[in-house]
Design a protein that fits this description.
Layout (H helix, E strand, L loop, with lengths): L1 H17 L22 E4 L1 H4 L5 H13 L2 H4 L3 E3 L5 E4 L5 E3 L6 H10 L3 E6 L16 H11 L3 E5 L3 H9 L4 H22 L4 E5 L6 H8 L3 E3 L8 H9 L13 E3 L12 H13 L4 E3 L8 H7 L2 H7 L8 E6 L2 E7 L5 E7 L10 E2 L11 E5 L5 E4 L4 E2 L6 E6 L4
Parallel strand pairs: 1-2, 1-10, 2-5, 5-6, 6-7, 7-8, 8-9
Antiparallel strand pairs: 3-4, 11-12, 12-13, 13-18, 14-17, 15-16, 15-18
The protein binds alpha-D-galactopyranose.
Length: 406
């Protein structure tokens, strides 16, 4: 955490610099994916529990994924984030700390629920929270994960930056980036050598355009920005940074705008709904990050909305794009299998009122004449007509699916 905090400004600065070169380049040919054919769905401990997560929290969360209907809705991965790690023994074997007495037993428990289990590490000597990292033990750690039955690894850069990149290549950013990519490649190979299908999640905050190189080394998802927080401004800032990345996403390899904050902090119901809707439009991994044992029914209803999840999980795997913006209102579209189209109208700002409803421009979306659509939050069908007035409360969204766009 502390290491990460001191790096975050540099992260943001570099992330914005690297994004400049993206448009000019092509993505590497993706490998045939064994896993993550659609964006991974599940839950991760970090956004709610942070460093406090325990074995019991993971078991309780797995239980709740089943009990709340989230499993039936498609949530599969139960992911332990940072702070499970203990010390290495004389043979270099990593042990868990006292919060996680028996990782194999925990994995067996999660599997017994018909779910999968994920874990966390990083290429540096320490993780972001200062726990043991995988540097110099990549193969050993990958084998250990496989022996426990781990199905998903989030691999977080953090201390690799000061301890390896900056030490080995001071003042040479390009050389630093090559070291970073080699570190991810090393763990990808170590995971592959286990023979176990393990989703590989790169967490390096979007440095050096990972969408261009991560798929080729076997990355199934890569963070495209710095950390999310449960604040509308942060969620909207991350959303804005996804525009332009659509062509890098597809079955087996996804842009990751970070885990969901639905149900966390002081997000309003509108903000929770918009956040979830837009992550579905982005074909983003849907990793809930809330307190499942105390989840309110309205939050469960958002996280389990089958129509919205169907947008996210659409088998074409085409990420949505921003069609246009009009002041503080943004219109995004996503092409779906069977020729269907999802349209999201997002009232991103604070200052648009019913005195001036938004007028949706169908022609700009390539649509001609009235369109029959399903409103995915009310479940009702509606007809979209050109320039029709649409009233959307601040930070709320209209999300529709047009089965047969004309
Ligand atoms: C970084 C990551 C977060 C989380 C923490 C854990 O900040 O971006 O998602 O994994 O580390 O320490």
């Amino acid at each position: 955490m502390r290491i990460f905090a001191s790096l975050s400004i540099a992260v943001l600065a570099l992330a914005s610099l690297t994004s400049l070169s993206v448009a000019a380049q092509q993505s590497a040919p993706p490998q045939v994916a064994q896993v993550a054919k659609t964006p991974p769905m599940g839950w991760n401990s970090w956004n709610y529990f942070f460093e406090k997560v325990t074995d019991k929290d993971i078991r309780d969360s797995a239980d709740q994924i089943v009990a709340t209907g989230m499993k039936d809705a498609g949530y599969v991965y139960v992911n332990i984030d940072d702070t499970w790690e203990g010390k290495r023994d004389a043979n270099g074997v990593l042990h868990t700390n006292s919060k996680f007495p028996d990782m194999k037993a925990l994995a067996d428990y999660v599997h017994s629920k018909g779910l999968k289990i994920g874990i966390y590490s990083g290429p540096g000597p320490k993780t972001c929270a200062g726990y043991e990292g995988s540097l110099g033990h990549e193969e050993q750690d990958a084998q250990l994960y496989a022996s426990w039955g781990i199905d998903y690894l989030k691999y977080d850069l953090c201390s690799f930056i000061p301890e390896v990149m900056e030490k080995q290549a001071p003042s040479d950013k390009a050389a630093q980036m090559r070291l970073m990519i080699a570190a991810y490649d090393k763990m990808a190979k170590a995971l592959k050598a286990t023979g176990r299908p393990i989703v590989f999640s790169l967490c390096q905050y979007g440095w050096d355009a990972p969408w261009e190189w991560a798929p080729a080394l076997g990355g199934n998802l890569w963070r495209s920005t710095g950390d999310i927080t449960p604040d509308w401004d942060r969620i909207y800032a991350i959303l804005s940074q996804q525009d332009g990345l659509a062509r890098y996403a597809g079955p087996g390899h996804w842009n990751d705008p970070d885990m969901l904050e639905v149900g966390n902090g002081k997000l309003s119901i509108e903000e929770n709904r918009s956040h979830f809707s837009m992550w579905a439009m982005l074909a983003a991994p849907l990793l809930a990050g809330n307190d499942l044992p105390h989840m309110k029914p309205e939050i469960r209803d958002i996280l389990t909305n089958a129509d919205v999840i169907a947008i996210d999980q659409d088998k074409l795997g085409r990420q949505g794009t921003r069609a246009y913006s009009d002041g503080e209102v943004e219109v995004w579209t996503r092409h779906l299998s069977g020729g269907a189209l999802a349209v999201a109208v997002l009232a991103a700002g604070d200052n648009r009122f019913s005195t001036h409803p938004f007028h949706l421009d169908l022609a700009t979306l390539g649509l001609h004449g009235p369109q029959e659509a399903k409103n995915l939050w009310t479940g009702k069908t509606m007809t979209l007509t050109d320039r029709m007035p649409i009233e959307i409360a601040s930070h709320d969204i209209l999300l529709v699916r047009i089965a047969a766009p004309k």
